[in-house]
Amino acid sequence: MFNRSLIVVFAGLLCTSASAQTLRIVTDLSSRIEETSGLLYLNGRLLTHNDSGGSVKLYEVDTATGDVIDDVLVNGATLTDWEDMCADDEDIFVGDFGNNLGDRTSLKLYKIEINDFLDGSESTDAVELPFHYADQTNFDPAQFRTNFDAETLICYGDHLLIFSKNWGDGKTRIYPIDKDETSEQELEPIATIDIGGLVTGGVYNADKQVIILVGYQGFIPFVVEMQVDGSLDFDTFSWERTILSTQGGSTQIEGISLAPGDRYFISGERTAIADPTLYEFTFGGVSNTTSVENANSISVYPNPANNMVHVEGEDIKRVELHDISGKLVFVSTEKQLQLGTLARGSYTLSTFDKGGQKSSRILVLE
Q1: In the beta sheet, which residues pair with residue 112?
Q2: Which of 155, 227, 270, 340 is the most buried (most CB within 10 A)?
Q3: What pLDDT does residue 350 have?
Q4: What is the pLDDT of residue 128?
Q5: Each residue of 19-73: pLDDT tens digit?
Q6: CA-CA-CA-CA torsion sign (48, 118, 205, 172)
Q7: CA distances from 297 to 300, 301, 358 (A)
Q8: Ordered strands of the 13-17 beta sheet
Q9: Phi, psi angle pair for 160, to nearest 5°
C-alpha cells in the first residue's frame, strides 16, 4: 500500500504526491510475452516485444484477453536486449540497448517500415542503426551500477530520443540519434535530468505537448508528466511525478503507449509474485503532485557512499533500504547508518516519520 503523504525529491524541487494514480488492470498477458518491454499502439493494433532470451519478433496483443493474436519475425535483427519501441509516420524503431552490465559495445536501433509490417506478412526486414555513447569510456562490467543502461526510446517530432537508465547515480541522460544514419553514430547527451528514479519507458503526446515517462524507484512504480514545446531544451522543461498503484498486478513497469482518446496502455513484465500485466489509464493531467515550499527537506550524504551514511531531517523515525529487486535489506532508527556489510550497488533509501513514508531516493554504495 502506498502512503498518501509520500514526499519525493527531484531536480532540486521538493514535491508531494497527494495521492497515488491507480492503474486499471485490463488483463494478464500471455506467457509468450512475459518479458514484455516496449509497447506501441499502431493503426488500432497493440504491439509489444520481449526484452531478451526470446524470439526476434514483434507481437500483436488482444487488449481484451492478453493473448497474442499475431507475430512478425524481424529479419536482419538479433535480440540481445530489446527495451523499447516507437513509431513516426513511416517507420517503427526498436531499441536494442539494454545494458545492465554497462559493457555492451554493440548498441543499436532497428528501423522497420510500417507498411512492410502491416501488409500481413509473416516477416519483415530491419535496417540496423548502430551507435555508442560519446561519454562512455569504461566498459568494465558493473551490474546494476552502470550509467549507460537504457530502456526508453521516444519519437519526438523529427527526433529520436534515448533516455538512459542510470543505475549508478539514479539520473537520466537524454541522447538524440539520427533516424536515417546507418553508419555507427557517436551520441552526445543533450541534457541530464533527475526525476528521482529509473526510467523504463516513455511516449510523446504531440496533441498535449507532453512526454510521459514511467519507471520505478526500488519497488515503487511512478509516472512522470513532462511539459515540452517541441524543442530539445530539456534542462528547462518542468515535470510532475505521481506514484502508481498497480492493485496486485506487476509492479515492474516496462512499456507505455498512447492510444486514441488520451488513453495510455502500460505493460508490466512477470515478477516473482505477479503475472505480466496490461494496464490502462486516461487523464487530462496525470499528476496530482503539487509543490510544497516549506516542507522539511531530507539530506543523505555522502552519496555515493562507502560504509557510513548520514541522514538528516526533522521527525525521522525510521530508515529503510531496499535492493533493486525490492527486498528490504536494512532497517534502522538511527540517522548514522553503518552499511559496510551490504553489497556494493544501488539501493532505495526511504525515510519514515510517525505518519508514514517521508522521502525516497537512490543511494549508491561503492
Answers
A1: 92
A2: 155
A3: 82
A4: 98
A5: 467 899 999 999 999 999 999 999 999 999 999 978 999 999 999 999 999 999 9
A6: positive
A7: 10, 13, 10
A8: 7-10, 13-17, 289-291
A9: -110, 130
Order across the sheet with 277-282: list the strands. 24-28, 277-282, 263-268, 253-259
Alpha carbons 336 and 302: distance in angstroms, whole number: 11
Per-residue pLDDT tens for 69-92?
Answer: 999 999 999 999 999 999 999 999
Q: How would you classify the pairing of strands 277-282 and 263-268?
A: antiparallel
- What is the arrangement of strands in the sheet containing 336-338, beginning at the earlier edge strand? 299-301, 308-312, 336-338
- Single-letter amino acid, residue 115: N
Burial 108-143 (b: 16+ CB within 10 A, else e): bbbbbebeebeeeeeebebeebebbbeebeeeeebe
Instruction: Report which DSSP code applies to 302.
Output: S
Domains of the chain, start order: 15-291 (2.115.10), 299-365 (2.60.40.10)
> What distance in Å separates the CA atoms of residue 48 and residue 257, rounded to the nearest whole number?
10
Query: In the predicted model, what is the mean pLDDT of residues 308-334?
Result: 87
CA distance 327 to 254: 19
pLDDT at 62 (0 to 100)? 97
273 contact partners, CB below 8 Å, separation of at least 6:
none
